[in-house]
From TrEMBL:
Signal peptide: none annotated. Pfam families: YjdM (PF03831). This is PhnA domain protein. PANTHER family: PROTEIN YJDM, PROTEIN YJDM-RELATED. InterPro entries: PhnaA_N_proteobac, YjdM_C. Residues 2-47 form the PhnA protein N-terminal proteobacterial domain.
Amino acid sequence: MSLEVRSGGVCELCGSSEGLSAFEVAPSDASDEQSVYICSTCKSQIENPDTLDESHFNCLNDSMWSETPAVAVLSYRLLGALGRQDLVDMMYMEDDIKAWADAQSIGGGDDALVYKDANGVTLAAGDTVVITKDLDVKGTGFVAKRGTAVRNIGLVPNDAEHIEGRVNGVKIHILTKYLKKS
């Protein structure tokens, strides 16, 4: 089945019908199964990750559920680049598709940030950490107590010194130097 037929003649990410072309989801073997039919707006933003417009990519809320693996992989990578760990965490992919999604990132390179806790242990999205010092949480009126577990953390894009997580039901940013991986 050709990409145009599979997509119904619209961008498989945002649904636009303007400036459509095939986009290979690397690493790929250049087959239609590993390509996505996308519009010129989506393509230009993917190729220039510094220009990612989160409001344009609100469409990923729908495309992330695509049954087409290449569309799901590209949605996963874009959500990660936009720092939408909450949506990434909701996605389910078979192990081989997840490995493909993790094989590369949007704007990926060798300059990827490394998040480390107070002991120098590398942190990853989804980890559980423990707060090592009582922290006043600005704007909330409560203190995040030492010893509090923060589960399923998210990594703050472009800032390896902060993670995000929920404490007392409130999503907050926490300095990694006050955390210990558990």
